[in-house]
Amino acid sequence: MREYKNFKEIDRDLKLLKLQKEIDKEKVLLSYNQTKESLSPKRILKDAADSVLKNRYVLKGATSVLGFIGDKFK
């Protein structure tokens, strides 16, 4: 526990704590809004569509490469 020598030190620490409380509150609100946005139906559908398209191109590319490698060993 900290020992204070005067009221000025106490006031300073109280101001710092108040500012830290405001910062923490803003962080929570920001996190809440980001989570809310990421869980919206529109965002979920967009992310799912992006994932399907990426997997489609990866699968197509891998099939082409594997087919090309397989042709070399025939």
Automatic annotation (TrEMBL):
Organism: Salinimicrobium profundisediminis
Superkingdom of the organism of origin: Bacteria
Pfam hit, one: DUF6327
InterPro entries linked to this entry: DUF6327
Protein name: DUF6327 family protein
